[in-house]
UniProtKB/TrEMBL annotation:
Compartments reported by the entry: Periplasm
Biochemical pathway: Glycan biosynthesis; alginate biosynthesis
Record-given protein name: AlgX/AlgJ SGNH hydrolase-like domain-containing protein
Keyword annotations: Alginate biosynthesis, Membrane, Periplasm, Signal, Transferase, Transmembrane, Transmembrane helix
Organism in which the protein naturally occurs: Faecalibacterium prausnitzii
Domain of life assignment: Bacteria
Gene Ontology BP term (one): alginic acid biosynthetic process
Domain spans labelled AlgX/AlgJ SGNH hydrolase-like: 94-269
Amino acid sequence: MQVKKLGYILFVGVIATICILPVAVMPWQTEKAVGNEQLASFPELRKEDGSFNTGILNEFSDYFADHFGLRHEMITLNDQLTGTVLKTLDSSSVLLGKDDWLFYKSTLADYTGAELFTARQSYAAAHVLGLMQEYCEENGIGFCFTIAPNKNSLYSGQMPARYTAASVRNAQLLQQQMEQQNVRYVDLFKTLSDHEEQLYYRRDSHWNMRGAQLAAQTLLKELKGSEAEFDSCINGKTSPHTGDLYEMVYPAGNETEQDTAYDFTCQYDEKFHSADDITIHTENSAADESIFVYRDSFGINLHPFLAQSYGNACFSRNMPYLLTAVTEEQPDVLLVELVERNLNWLLERAPEMPAPERTAVPAADTGTSAKAQRKDSRMEGTFCLTGNLSGQRVDDDSPIYILAETETYEASPCGEGTQPFTAYLPQNVREQQLKAAFLSDGEWVFCALAD
């Protein structure tokens, strides 16, 4: 009986220790966000207006869930066990593939074709790029767009067998429309998929340095018309890389992948802190021409190759794209790089640029109205008009014009809703008398715009 009783005591003691330990070490442990985490802040007793914070208990629960002691160690142990035994991960963001490859779950819709663009969306996404290209060319700047492929678009063989790759994806639908609308585009899918060398990290969502090199060479061949050579920049060493997906599921882990190391001669300005800066400026006296690049996280590895190849370069992570910032820099070319999983941003985040003027169209009154509202603009002398033609019969390939008293402007077919539009109009345009014109069954019609 004494032995049995001692066993119960030890068992209860172990369970109590496991329960108490995370709380006990909490004051001495500082949790840091990993991957794309946003950790909850410690709740305030009172709100900004001085009233009592009635949601303090829920907020403290969120705070504790993000900051309890040994949290990273427990998450890591849990995913190591589930990955080894069940061949899956207890993660809402990361998918375990074959041979311990990791994939971003947000790319599954692209991979399986679960959320394909409609014909209207494909047209609209390409048309937004076409309007950006038009604006750049009118200001003496070249334009080019490229898509950074999702990792599973190139390495489908490492995906779990339970997922079937779609035969058609949004990137292909958009590419078809860009060809029809003469948008300058560089296809990285073919270049990267035809290469036998591994070009993406196993435990990261991005291309590695060799993948970025090949992508840069493909882009530069189109942009500068010549082959770029970077092998001479390889210093013969390797650098350890910790994958972003690995950090999400194994935050206490220390495994790294060896990556090719380079020595570049381009110079960064004095404001540079890291490759993840919102804006980066570089110079290279050994190169010529200038480039402005709107990029995302794939630009971390891509940008030094481009910086090495241009006399002056500016790299920006600002979104929405501010086209007047590009004209202020006056580069020879604007390159827009966007990862495949975020192509829907072209439909949701309108580029900030003056709406181009168009020739008036003979549109018939539909006798209906659509909602629109005025918003502030970062561009001096303009205001932003956003609206939605939901309920209107708009042709899949129709532009959207804004009819003022004497002028006609074209809006970007993107924003919020099912038939959105966004236009940056001159301040002297009176929004009370604006109309939206569009093609319906091949004929121009218009509807009034109202708040």
